[in-house]
Amino acid sequence: MLRRAVSGAILCAISLVFATFSPVVATAGPSGGVELAELPGSTRSQAFAVNAAGVLVGVSGTDAGEYAVRWASNGTLSQLPMPPGAMWSDASAINDAGLIAGNIDLQAAWWSPAGAVTLLPVPNGFSGSYVEAVNADGVMVGDALRGSSGNYGAIRWTTGGTATELAMLPNAHSAHATAINASGFITGYVDVGPARHAVRWAPDGTITDLGVLPGANLAIVWGINDAGIMVGAALTGEGPQAVRWAVDGTATVLGMLPNGTEARAISVNTGGTIVGDVTLSDQRHATRWSKQGAVTDLGVPPGRVASSAYAINDTGVVAGYSIDVNDNPHATRW
What we know:
The protein contains no helices and 31 strands. The protein is mostly beta strands. The strands form 7 sheets. Strands 1-20-19-18-17 form a 5-stranded mixed β-sheet, with no helix packed on it. A 5-stranded mixed β-sheet has the order 2-24-23-22-21, with no helix packed on it. Helices cover 0% and strands 51% of the residues. The radius of gyration is 19 Å and the shape is globular. The model is unreliable at 1-30 (pLDDT under 50).
């Protein structure tokens, strides 16, 4: 199905090729994961990212306020510093050098490996910003709110503070950057009318429309590895499905757990192993897909009712959260 082709230096158009994995045997996770420590008084936490050393980052707190935290590979918890007067923070990404990216009071920020915090400038014309990912060079990506319009622009930052808005598709009104790899390729999604298109930006800013699946109007890329393999989700006639995109844009719907109704693929490591979640009986279960497509239920810790996986490193350590009976998330490692 041919996506819209528009001339111009900043837009590439590709053909969206659709494929589906053959059915595979699903297996259950051996342990259901291990919950991580929380800040004193916390009722909720989430782990959003993990680096090669097994260091995880995320948030811990209550409904009244959450704070950026770091878990060492042995599970030791530390709260990341905030500037004086700041009210809340979160840590959304960490690279292998230990640089952490996140947000403080609706402003993009980063922490050095030693813990020094730096606020990133809000681009001109925008009223708030949010970092989603950071690569090995410390380049960060995310989005920023365009004034009071309710629309967003996809943004790329350097640690030096340079902020660049990424290109939109023609007729688009909102864009979000979700991930960046070591080569500087960025993934995300763009809203064009009622449709949401998966997209990829090259290091030079060229945007590629990865489109949507046939008969649908929604697709999102959430992760990209250093080989350029992308993962995310797309709406199909059978509901939301986990999807893997090859470098050439070929989209493959990933296998589903037995009795699963919805699925999301959120992160992919260098070896091609993917994590995300599958919905079973209205509850999400953290899920892993092998490079060959075999799907595994990572399970739910004892006493919890649901789980989701947000990130996986190259040794297979998975970061995410589990849900208690009161619908509070708790940072979990598999």
